[in-house]
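If you are new to this repository, start here. Below is one unmodified record pulled from the training split, so you can see the exact layout before writing a loader.
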Amino acid sequence: MEYTLPKTVAIDGEQHEIRYDFRVILTILEALKDPDLSDYDKAETAITLFYVSPDGIKNPNEALVACYSFIDMGKQKTVAKSPRLMDWEQDFPYIIAPINRVLGKESREIPYDFETNTGGLHWWTFMGAYMEIGECMFSQIVSIREKQARGKKLEKHEREWYRRNIDIIEFKQKFTDDENELTKEWMGV
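And here is the target side for that same chain:
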């Protein structure tokens, strides 16, 4: 059993210091979804952000595996496919308030220095608070998304809430810069 919060990961038997703050991890997750980045650029961004000394990494594939394992809190990925119910970037404004309530403080106010890798709120602590989110606006959003994804009928009050809040429930489509330019040309903007 592990009783401490990891601040290093092992790659080929060597320990490498990592940036563990939740803001760094959320930035990595945002980059991994960026349609303008190639798979190589996504991997390079993740490694550069996650590791304090990325130049010392000899095995980038293992470095990515260790990074993703840390993000998943050391758990192995399960094969079972489940519907997408949340988006860190889109839902963050609805996630942060209940996380702060669980933590008893404003998590974004906790100082973190990226360069010295000091301070901050460990990703696993942030995720622990996330998993304890109770009834709140975010849980309502996820509940409606889950029912829709599973083809279940919404209750009358849920349908009404959905209609009033469709812009925060529906996932936003992310387009590449080229696609956005093409749309502007079509629209004459």
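Two things worth knowing about this chain: The longest helix spans residues 88-103. The mean pLDDT is 92.
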